[in-house]
Structures are given as C-alpha cells and as structure tokens.
Amino acid sequence: RALVVSLFFKSFLAISRKLCGAGIMPPDAVPKAELSGADVFHTPALRSAQLFERVASDQPSHDPIGKPKVHAAALKQATGEAIYTDDIPRMDGELYLALVLSTKAHAKITKLDASEALALDGVEGFFSAKDLTQHENEVGPVFHDEYVFANDEVHCYGQIIGAIAAANQALAQRAARLVRVEYEELQPVIVTIEQAIEHASYFPDYPRYVTKGDVVQAFAEAAHVYEGSCRMGGQEHFYLETHVALAVPRDRDELELFCSTQHPTEVQKLVAHVVGLPANRVVCRAKRLGGGFGGKESRGMMVALPVALAAYRLQRPVRCMLDRDEDMLITGTRHPFLFKYKVAFTQEGLITACEIECYNNAGWSMDLSFSVLDRAMYHFENCYRIPNVRVGGWVCKTNLPSNTAFRGFGGPQGMFAGEHIIRDVARIVGRSELDVMQLNFYKTGDYTHYHQQLERFPIERCFQDCLKQSRYFEKQAEIERFNRENRWRKRGIALVPTKYGIAFGVMHLNQAGALINIYSDGSVLLSHGGVEIGQGLNTKMLQCAARALDIPIELIHISETATDKVPNTSPTAASVGSDLNGMAVIDACEKLNKRLAPIKEALPEGTWQEWINKAYFDRVSLSATGFHAMPDIGYHPETNPNARTYSYYTNGVGVSVVEIDCLTGDHQVLSTDIVMDIGSSINPAIDIGQIEGAF
C-alpha cells in the first residue's frame, strides 16, 4: 500500500515538474528539494580503471609471471566454441535421467509407485532407495548423513526420492511427474534459525567455543557495554551452467564420468561407494565448469550419483543436466547466519572485549556447515584487535536443502558481524566509523583469538590508499550537500576493510599433485589437481610451468582435470587453488630440469626441441609427477600449538557510494573503489577479474 501511494506521489511530482516547466504552474509550486523525487534510475555509462604492479624490466620477454596474460580459453568462451559437459555430443543408446523430488518439507513416505511412469514407451528404468543397500545409499562429503535417494522419510522440499531413465529429456521429465508419492506429514517443520533455537535443533557436539583472555573481568571494568545482534540471509550461487553429469560404462566393471564439479576426487570416491567398485575403476573428468562459487564443491554428488548408478545398472550412457528451477530448489545456498554479541569498549571507542554467539542454518544435513561455522568464528573480528574474546558456534539443523560452500565460506558472514560491532561502538561514543576502525586495527605482530601471529599486516596502508583513491572526504562532503538539497533521494558512503585467511580449515586438504608429460616434438602436456571453473587457474598453471621450464607458454597445454592423471585431489576452493597446484607444477618441472641439465650443458646453443629430441634418444624419462603440501599449518590448541591456522592473509578495503530512492526503495551503486593486497600477482588481469567478479 505504501508503495502504491509513493508511486502515485512520484507521478504527481513528475507531472508538477512538467507543468512548472511549461509555465502552467508557478515555478515555486513544488519545493525544490522535493522535485528530484520524480527521478528514476538509469544505467549510467560505465567507467572503470585497473591499477597493478608492473614486472621488473630485466625479466626475460618469454617469462609470463606477473604479466596480465589473457585467460587461456577466453576466445573460445567468447565465441561459444568452448566445450562444457553438456556440449559433449549424444552417444548411441544414451539415456536421460530425470529426478523425482519431494514436495514436503518433513514427512514419511507412505507410498512410492512408478508403475504408470514405467508403462510409457521409451522409459527404461526407475531407481529409488530400494535399489541400494542401506550402506550404499548413505553418502556425504565428510559425514555420511545424506542419502542418494530418500529412505522412508524426507527432510526437506526438493529432496531426491527417485530417478527415471528414459530415451530423452522431455520423456524422462514427463515420466518423473507420473511417479506417485504419498506422504504422512511430520512435525515440527523447522525453517529459520530462530525456530531451530526454539526447538534446540542443533547438530551433535555443538556449541563449540573459542576463548582468549578474560571476558568477564573486561566487561566488569569497561566504560561501556553494548549488546546487539545482526543477521545475514542466504544467497543463490547462480552459476551459469547448472549441475550436470554424464556417465559412460567402459566395460562391465568400469565407469567414466564427465561431471561439472569442483571436486572430481570426491565424485569418484562416492560413485565407487554407491556402485560397489574400487576407485581405480571409476574415472571422473572435468574439462571446465561454467562457474561454481562453492556450489559445486560438494553438491555435485546429487546429480552424479543417480546418473552413475543408472549407467552402471543399465550399462548404457546416461546424462542429466538440471533445469535452473530444479538446481535452485535442490542444491542449497550460502549459509544464513544469526549473531548475538556483547561488546565492551572505552570512552574513546577502543574495544576491550567481545562475547559473540554465531548460529548458522545448515539445512537438513551437515555437508560442510561445521567448517563454514569455524571460518565465521575465526573471521568475526575482521581486521580489529579484541584482547578478550569468547566465541560460541552452533550448527542449526533445519528442514531446508542442505546449505553449502559459497565464496568466502563463512568469512563474509563473520566479518559482517565485526563491521556491525564497529559501527555500534562508533555510534555510542560519537566518533566517526573511520576513527574507530583505525583505533582498533590489528598491527603487525598482534595475535588473533585463535593464537595466530600476524606476521605482516598491511591493512593501514590499504585503508589510506583506498581513502586517497576514492577521494573519500571529498565525496562525503558532496553527499552531505546532496542529502540537504534532496528530500526523497539520499546518498551514503561506506568503507569496509577485510582480512581473509588462506588455507583449507581441514588439514589434509592442503595438498596438491601435478603430472607433466613432454612429447618428442617438444610440446608439453600439463595436468594438475585443480579445476578450471572460469577463474583462470589453468592460465596461471601454464604461466608457472613456462617460467619453471624456461620455455614459451605456447608450447604448453592443459587438457582437463581427471582422477586418472592426478589422484586424491583436493577440491578447487578456499582461494588456494593456484597456491597448492602451482607449487606441485613447479616441483614436477624441477625434476625434469634436473634430468635435462646434462643435455643442456652438452648442447649450450641448442633449442628446447633439440634438447628434448636428444633426451628421448638418450632414453631420459620425459614425464614427472609433482607434489606439494602446505607447510607449517594445522593449528590445534592441544596437539599442535605451534602451527598456524592459515598460511597467510589477504587484505582489502572497499569504498562504495550508493543512492536510494526513499519513495520506492530502488537503489543504485554510483561508484566503488577497491584496494586489495594479494602479494605479487601471478597474473594481474586474472586477479583483477576475480576481484571485480567477486564484487
């Protein structure tokens, strides 16, 4: 109703402005400050500039490290020639798989009848929990607390109950709609974090606490104590390519999978578990993904497992690509969070203690929620030193599709709480947010609440650079003037600093492998454990190999990521893809360089092709594996107190100016400036692309 009145008023202002302009109404009939309320937003002409560090002038011309090299597949992607999983041509006898999904949030399945669907011509089979043993049906990325097909009970709307294999997509989807499912609804249905708290619906072993110093004493001695809360909703990944898998039986007991996943090894492992084969009979391949953002780190199994099962049982190729509505329904989102905090601070705004409770909405199964909560608990203080801390964390079990990894993995949610705290403190002591931020910033040498020392902490420099680059104070003055002169349109400016820890929270994932094959014509085929999701990982790996072997980048090619080239890979996630795989690539290159050294000494004037040819005829191995394990990490208060939690941190500061239309709630970002410290960039073009894309 308010919106209708506002739009009516907007039209009144727009008409009045025209009448004043035409001289029909007196020019001061409507106050000047009100007139801009008639305006609507238009997309402005976009202007942008990117600044980065240039490489040293004495660097050899064919050494690509540090240069803004174009993404290796950019031209193919721009012209539509790049092959994604579903672009693989249809095979002879191939079937399409359609999923039967739950239409209740919490219910018992009393009847499951596929006879009507199976009677259709061209429908080849129906699969459900009855086709698997209890053990085979239980799956999950870490804890096996999920099911390939719902077993007697459904825990969320959109849970997979069964799958129909048929001659084509239209037929399979029609048949899936004919499968009759009857339910007996169960109580309670828990959707929100508040409902989970009310029903004490938590996963076992929670809450967990992290403490530092003495919060009780600090609260007793504080000049000010304030209690508040904040919340953050979920977010859909919306990768352009939805989840997709194609399974091809290669023999009675061999399966090959083409899958859009950030974690081919996990798909391999779970497929082997479900069909009852050892992992060496299952190959999972991923050439490139059309985006992932964490949504394909663990949830790829929801499509890959039914597809693999159908292909294995029917001994025919089977494919499934989710429609957008199915994908958004079944795959989960970013974790919604609720934070309740109590903060102590001085008259000047220096924070002395904080007690905070973090609740995340995990959905119906654990998935990676425990790890997301850990990262949120470790990032809640953002860039601010708080000497006394007590952080509690709860993983809430609800009747929603299981929430999962999403760019930042709990970090953004945690930092969101930290930024609320800083703004509360600034408001109460009556100082500017920037002053309170600077007063509380960590300095080099400080310790976090999880006992990691900050060896280099350049946040102050990022902060000053960003203020300068964005002309912050100038813009702030302009905004104050604009807001005085316009009643119905208002502008605001905000600055947010960040600190993000680089490493997987789970120790054993911080490893990577690589395989390099050099062919007798001098061309090089590189395989590594990371997946090209569009983020440019392959481009960076080509750059690493080109420098390490000291050859032009054009001689090197990466075909795909596959579990038969590099085994036991970690997911491509947590911002460590290039760190881990790059080091593994360099390790393999160094082995090859060692073998080629005597030949290069004997033929100092030779070309790369001549050296490789000579090595081949001298029976020197031209294939090498590389491996890297991230050093000095794996902190645990009892078992490993001297290690670090994160390998290092990246820092950044962003400033945005936003305008809102107070009548309609419409808004527009007018300008943004970002300064990121990411060390020495391997490829500034790709890193800036990642930063802009993330923003």
TrEMBL record:
* A GO molecular function held by the record: iron ion binding
Q: A Pfam family in this protein?
A: MoCoBD_1
**Keyword list, A-Z:** 2Fe-2S, FAD, Flavoprotein, Iron, Iron-sulfur, Metal-binding, Molybdenum, Oxidoreductase, Signal
Q: Which residues form the Aldehyde oxidase/xanthine dehydrogenase a/b hammerhead domain?
A: 79-187
| PANTHER family in the cross-refs | XANTHINE DEHYDROGENASE
Q: Hey, which family's this protein in? A: Belongs to the xanthine dehydrogenase family.
What is the name attached to this protein's record?
Answer: Xanthine dehydrogenase
| Species annotation | Drosophila hydei
